[in-house]
Amino acid sequence: EEAHYYELAAIYYYQKNCTKTIETYQEIEKRFGFSPELSLQKQEVFMVCQKPQEALAEAEKLSATFPDE
User: Fold this and answer.
1) At a CB cut-off of 8 Å and minimum separation 6, what does 6 contact?
2) What does each C-alpha distance from 22 to 4, 17, 42, 56 come to in angstroms?
3) How confident is the model at residue 69 (pLDDT cuts 50, 70, 90)?
4) Helices 18-32 & 2-14, crossing angle to 10 degrees?
């Protein structure tokens, strides 16, 4: 089921639908938990969509959650 959400996010991403891509990633996080891979993907989308503040906030969240990595 998780893979379905990632595929859906990829479709939205290739359609350049930033809002739907991020919403899908947020749904993944809500249902399956936070992960470094998901966070990096969200950061990339935020940067592509010209939302550097959101990308920075996501990077800070990742750093706070996994301080040793």
Assistant:
1) 28
2) 15, 9, 7, 15
3) confident
4) 170
Q: Which position has the token pair 């991403």?
A: 13
Q: CA triplet 46, 49, 54: central angle to 5 degrees? A: 30
- Chain-centroid distance of CA 61 in Å reads 12
Q: How far apart are CA 69 and CA 38, in angstroms?
A: 15
CA 55 to chain centre: 9
Q: Per-residue pLDDT tens for 10-60?
A: 999 999 999 999 999 999 999 999 999 999 999 999 999 999 999 999 999
